[in-house]
Specification:
alpha/beta, eight-stranded parallel barrel, TIM Barrel, 17% strand, three-stranded antiparallel beta sheet
């Protein structure tokens, strides 16, 4: 497997240092990563605005300059929005941005909510979204870009639900961005969930969490933590320091024949660059072991 990093991992660094994408491409190369994937390029929180296609050209030039691959472009999406047809068109334009970046894969969300209708279920959401997601996957195939959705956002985060979504879309150009850590947020056994996901895997994220039993609904959530769907506690940390069995998840992927990119995602409170150096060392070691 090839080791990359998500630009999301540099979130605080980008804001604190007020630097641009070129600098984090170089930092990624210096740490040892072979590639860096990007999330929505226009990001006012980072002070980055402007024409997304022009930004894509600059990012691609920086990657070429430093001999780095851009394995994926990751964007927000909501196929249960109030304007679903507009959302399909918008995400198709994001496919064009991915192509401009030279990224062979785009990850877009399904939805983080359900319709506020009596009796509306997550299964209803899949039935409604699947044709729209398929249209984007078809367009992406025409552009030479693979399309996928991540286990992400509580509602479509458990392995059974994401599998159901991918099967409903039913297109060979649509698969799964397998985030080995996110399964913890819906209280799943991570390696077991990865074994469900592995046959559909187009791309992988490796992240780690500190996981604690929930204190009960009557007690406040401790600072820095968030609650899982079952009321347990989680917060991001350096890869290898937390409770997610990352190495076992990677072994499950390898056993299933996956040999693509694994991108490190860091969302902890520790200092960014030391965390990424430590995470890279952990991931490199984990990928050499059975």
């Amino acid at each position: 497997m090839k080791i990359g990093v998500s630009s999301y991992s540099f979130d605080r660094y980008l804001r604190d240092k007020e630097c641009g994408y070129r600098e984090i491409v170089l930092l990624s190369k210096t740490i040892g990563f072979r590639g860096i994937e990007f999330i929505d390029l226009v990001n006012p929180a980072w002070g980055i605005t402007g024409d997304e296609f022009a930004l894509a050209q600059k990012v691609r030039a920086a990657a070429d300059e430093f001999g780095m691959v851009i394995p994926a472009y990751t964007v927000a999406a909501d196929f249960l929005s109030s304007d679903p047809e507009g959302e399909v068109e918008r995400v198709c334009r994001k496919v064009d941005v991915a192509k401009e970046l030279g990224a062979p894969l785009i990850r877009y969300d399904a939805s983080f909510h359900l319709r506020d209708l009596p009796g509306y279920t997550w299964e209803d959401g899949i039935d409604e979204m699947a044709p729209r997601i398929r249209r984007v996957a078809e367009y992406a195939a025409e552009q030479g870009v693979r399309a996928c959705t991540e286990n992400h956002g509580f509602i479509y985060q458990s392995p059974e639900r994401v599998k159901r979504l991918i099967d409903a879309v039913g297109h060979q150009n649509y698969g799964w961005l397998v985030d080995v850590g996110n399964f913890s947020v819906v209280d799943c056994d991570n390696p077991a969930a990865v074994r469900v996901a592995a046959p559909y895997a187009f791309h992988v994220h490796a992240k780690d969490f500190i996981l604690l039993p929930g204190p009960g609904e009557e007690k406040p959530t401790p600072a820095g933590f968030r609650r899982s769907s079952g009321g347990n506690l989680w917060r991001g940390t350096v890869l290898g320091r937390g409770n997610v069995p990352v190495a076992a998840c990677l072994s499950a992927l390898r056993d299933a024949g996956y040999d693509g990119w694994v991108s490190l995602e860091f969302e902890g409170t520790e200092d960014v660059l030391p965390a990424l150096n430590e995470g890279f060392a952990y991931l490199s070691d984990a990928l050499t072991k059975r």
